[in-house]
Amino acid sequence: MVTVLFSLMRIVFFITDKKQFTGFSNSDVNQKVYEFFPEYPFLKSDPNKKLMTLKNLLEMKSGVDCEEFNGTKDCEEGMEWSKNWVKYALELPMKNKPGIEWSYTSMDPVILSGVISKATGMSVMDFADKYLFKPLGISKYRWTLDPSGNAMTGGSFYIRSVDLIKLGQLVKDKGIYNRKQVISKKWIVESTLCDIAIPDFSNMKSSRSKAGIPSLLFTAITGTGKG
To answer: Residue 134 belongs to a domain with what CATH number?
Structure first.
């Protein structure tokens, strides 16, 4: 369910493109993450953390020292014992400079949820309900929350299969549902590009992209992954 929910978080984030929220700099994906969390000065003082952008989170290239697909550095267990999952994710040590290496981790969508909350003044649950779920007629779903009330946006989200189909149809129809533009066509096109190199593993058998052949690096496809 991790990748499905991460795809959902991308949709929720890109809805903000046509909404006027003062926390975003014109929905610029190159905006720095530290700008949203002034209460955490370490984000600006750390030489790598201060470089982290919204685009890095959207592409799972934050550089945090976590990797869940191969189980080499799963950070979820430690996060679950913390009181504030967004803060936990932000405090994690860095492994790489942001934007350099793709790593499958729940930490990036967790941080992204904090960004959305900060920029919109709404919890990610309320924002998604108002601007995504209600327009699609989706009412039966359940978030998992941390002790501080933050939603777990890297997994543990429960929704009916019939409603997942609605989300898939929204993407297929370039952001339109029932003749209404719910999310901009521009962001749907950009967020479904098959252009992120992934080392070590692949779902290329189900991909029509030529990017991964014959290279040993493969390409990310929205909607693949664990669960």
So the answer is: 3.40.710.10
Q: How far is CA 141 from CA 14, 29, 36, 74, 138, in A?
A: 21, 28, 28, 26, 8
The residue to which tokens 């992954």 are assigned: 225
Could you tell me the two tokens for 37?
């969390």
* Tokens found for residue 59: 């592409």
Q: What is the pLDDT of residue 28?
A: 75
pTM comes to: 0.82
Q: Which residue shows structure tokens 């924002």?
A: 127
Q: Is it true that the peptide bond before 214 is cis, omega within 30 degrees of 0?
A: yes
Distance CA 62, CA 3 (A): 16
Centre a 10 Å sphere on the Cβ of residue 161 and count the other Cβ atoms it contains: 6
Count the domains in the chain: 2
Token pair for 38? 């002034």
Q: Is the distance from CB of 75 to CB of 107 less than 8 angstroms? A: yes
**Reduced to 3 states, what is the DSSP secondary structure of residue 6?**
helix
Residue 131 and residue 28 in contact, taking contact as beta carbons nearer than 8 Å: no
